[in-house]
Write a structure and sequence with these properties.
Elements: E1 4-13, E2 16-26, E3 31-35, H1 42-50, E4 57-62, E5 65-66, E6 77-80, H2 92-102, H3 107-120, H4 136-149, E7 154-158, H5 166-183, E8 186-191, H6 194-200, E9 203-208, E10 211-216, H7 218-223, H8 228-233, E11 238-247, E12 251-256, E13 259-264, E14 273-278, E15 284-286, E16 292-301, E17 305-312, E18 315-322, E19 334-338, E20 345-348
Parallel strand pairs: 3-8, 3-9, 6-7, 7-8
Antiparallel strand pairs: 1-2, 1-4, 4-5, 9-10, 11-12, 11-14, 12-13, 14-20, 15-19, 16-17, 16-19, 17-18
Helix pairs in contact: 2-3, 2-4, 3-4
Bound molecules: adenosine-5'-triphosphate and magnesium ion.
Adenosine-5'-triphosphate binds near residues 13, 16, 18, 40 and 42.
Length: about 350
């Protein structure tokens, strides 16, 4: 049995269903992210696991125990809340060491743990400061250190890095992931930051309107979206509306604006009105082997790549080209576009596919 299971979990507030029948299993030592837009039910799900909200129906087990009705402090779970409440009258070291002191850990050992945790979040030397003497991002890091110091069996993180600047956040992703692996702490991270979810997770549960729309590895979530929602939510993509002409054993022939595209259907039951998707980085500028002609409407330089918007007979196409050194053609110029059919994806428009 998995380390943590949610079985048929729902949460209703009056007539409003915040969570609709979620089944989810998290393995021991796994890092799972709940990723989705604001209001999709991420915090509600996490709070039900932590025990601060009780589900309307369903069952939660942790390490074989039914904890559905257990009090939060009896669950052995570490939590970093979306609003990371620190004790204002305690120093940084006091905050980080509070739980350890409650556990009656010896002073030397406690000091060592506090030091380690603060080092991890880059706050060594600020031990004696009070929360009001810290920036928002520093407070957030104290909250992370406090949870890590406890080395809980299950760690729940709700947007723990939302206040950090981009560079620090990137470093923390890698360091937090490393320490999570080293200590083997099963972790669930709530985030709406796709890069954060992809960098850190073994698996991502993409949530949409109180349900899990897709549960898969970061690579599969990006490369094989299971629903129109996940296709457009994770990363950027070009969406082309089309009509299935024929479904062959491996690919579907799809009519898009008078052109026929051959799209691998990966066993999906596609028919009628469909969307064909292709990622901007999988479309390239081409001369001889161009599949489509267009005119560059916008050209933007973002350092590691160029982002182009190209007007074509199939509609506006976004193209991301790595920065090889030489700039691509200027705005207004005619260009050819090419891609490999294997990089196209197809889904029924209404999202009738269910889960991957
Ligand atoms: N106590 C409550 N009473 C009524 N509705 C609630 C309550 N708590 C949450 N909701 C609703 O449930 C839905 C899910 O809320 P939740 O806080 O889980 O979203 P979230 O995915 O964490 O969003 P965010 O990214 O903005 O934090 C929202 O539509 C919210 O308005
Ligand atoms: Mg939330």
């Amino acid at each position: 049995m998995s380390f943590l299971t949610l079985q048929g979990i729902s949460k209703r507030y009056g007539d409003f269903t915040a969570i609709e029948h979620i089944d989810l299993s998290v393995e021991r030592g796994e890092f799972m992210s709940l990723l989705g837009p604001s209001g999709c039910g991420k915090t509600t799900t996490l709070q039900m696991i932590a025990g601060f909200i009780s589900p309307t129906s369903g069952r939660i087990t942790l390490d074989g125990r039914d904890i559905t009705d257990a009090r939060p402090e009896k669950r052995g779970i570490g939590v970093v809340f979306q609003s990371y409440a620190l004790f204002p009258h305690m120093t940084v070291a006091g905050n980080v060491g509070f739980g350890l002191e409650m556990r009656k850990m010896k002073r030397d050992e406690r000091r060592r743990r506090i030091g380690e945790a603060l080092e991890l979040v880059h706050l060594s030397g600020l031990d004696e400061r009070y929360p009001k003497e810290l920036s928002g991002g520093q407070r957030q890091r104290v909250a992370i250190a406090r949870a890590i110091a406890m080395q809980p069996e299950l760690l729940l993180l709700d947007e723990p890095m939302s206040n950090l600047d981009a560079k620090l956040r990137e470093e923390m992703h890698i360091e937090l992931r490393a320490i999570q692996k080293r200590l083997g702490i099963t972790t669930i991270l709530v985030t709406h930051d796709q890069v954060e979810a992809m960098t850190m997770s073994d698996r991502i549960a993409v949530m949409h309107r109180g349900k899990v729309a897709q549960l898969s590895t970061p690579f599969d979530a990006y490369e094989r979206p299971a629903t129109p929602f996940t296709s457009t939510f994770l990363g950027r993509t070009n969406t082309l509306e089309g009509e299935v002409l024929r479904r062959n054993p491996r690919c579907a022939e799809v009519a898009v604006a008078g052109t026929t595209l051959h799209v691998p259907h990966e066993g999906r039951d596609v028919d009628g009105a469909v969307n064909v998707y292709i990622r901007p980085e999988k479309v390239r500028l081409a001369n001889g082997d161009a599949r489509l002609q267009g005119r560059i409407a916008t050209r933007v330089f973002v350092g590691n790549q160029w982002l182009l918007v190209v007007d074509t007979a199939l509609g506006r196409m976004h193209v991301a080209q790595p920065n090889f050194g030489a700039p691509p053609p200027e705005e207004g110029r005619e260009v050819g576009l090419a891609w490999t059919d294997d990089d196209l994806r197809v889904l029924n428009q209404e999202g009738r596919h269910g889960h991957a």
